[in-house]
Design a protein that fits this description.
Cobalt-precorrin-4 Transmethylase, domain 1; 5-stranded parallel β-sheet; 286 residues; 4-stranded parallel β-sheet
Length: 286
């Protein structure tokens, strides 16, 4: 077997920054709390936990000390609550997410009804909704967008969760455009790193006999990579660790493609590659 690696793997800039800020806080203070997982990778969260990062479900559960805000961001209301309780706040929100938050606030402040393409329960999207002064609408895809009631008097602004796929975003935009609102503002807030990973994954999936997508199963961008790869290569598998790899996925002389989510560390990818090597693979960087 031979293995080809996607051109972009390992942590993205935003995740690397978040983990670095959290580690610096732990080194300085000994321990800290995060509201939910700081990033969506269980193995990294477990490592940070051993260093003193405790995960809390809500602000009320944190009595004192430092709060590390997840890379997915938090709502202004929660930020105010943290400061009101006298807790130290370290904001690791991804710069791309911060930009999306500013855009939502601006569009809403200018009177636009904001439509967000994304997963309503994802922490990034929940925070984005709270940045609007007017009601917002969250849709998962063009099917949900097609059911929206939009009149020719409506001012509509469309943005995206930063980890969505470009194809999904364009499909939703076209669906809303056909409803002919009075004015339509379209702002692509998909992270450039995510777009590049998706593009590289598409190219690679067409050239291989199997695809492994390495990353947390609770990671939106990793799941999106898996969905993209599976459309092009049915023999695609999402794995969190090397322990999930099954011999039955590969045949002799197979070419195996490997990509990873933006919150997947290099060391996890290397473990997957080593596991393939142990099963008879010869690594060829692609």
């Amino acid at each position: 077997m031979t293995t080809k690696l996607a051109k972009r793997i390992g942590f993205c800039f935003g995740v690397r920054r978040a983990v670095s800020l959290a580690e610096a806080a732990l080194k300085r203070d000994g321990e800290a709390h995060s509201l939910g997982s700081i990033i969506h990778n269980p193995q990294v969260v477990a490592r940070l936990s051993k260093k003193g990062l405790k995960v809390a479900d809500n602000v009320a559960a944190i009595k004192s000390g430092t709060v590390v805000v997840s890379s997915h961001g938090i709502s202004p209301k929660i930020s105010r609550s943290i400061k009101k309780r006298g807790l130290k706040l370290i904001d690791t929100t991804c710069p791309f997410v911060l930009n999306a938050q500013r855009i939502v606030r601006s569009l809403s402040g200018d009177g636009y009804k904001v439509i967000i393409l994304g997963e309503a329960r994802h922490p990034e999207v929940k925070a984005l909704v709270d940045f609007a002064s007017l009601d917002t609408i969250v849709v998962r895809d063009k099917s949900e967008a097609s059911k929206l009631k939009i009149s020719n008097n409506d001012y509509i602004g469309i943005i995206s969760q930063t980890t969505q796929s470009t194809d999904n975003f364009l499909d939703v935009v076209e669906t809303i455009r056909k409803k002919r609102p009075r004015e339509l503002k379209i702002i692509n807030t998909i992270c450039k790193d995510v777009e590049e990973r998706q593009r590289a994954a598409r190219i690679l999936a067409k050239k291989v006999d199997a695809m492994l997508i390495v990353g947390g199963k609770n990671s939106a961008n990793t799941k999106r990579l898996f969905e993209i790869c599976r459309k092009l290569q049915k023999n695609s598998h999402l794995v969190e660790t090397e322990k999930e790899i099954a011999r039955g996925w590969f045949k002799p002389n197979s070419i195996i493609g490997v990509t990873s989510g933006a919150s997947t560390p290099d060391w996890l990818v290397k473990k997957v590659i080593n596991a393939i090597r142990e099963k008879g693979g010869c690594i060829i960087n692609g």
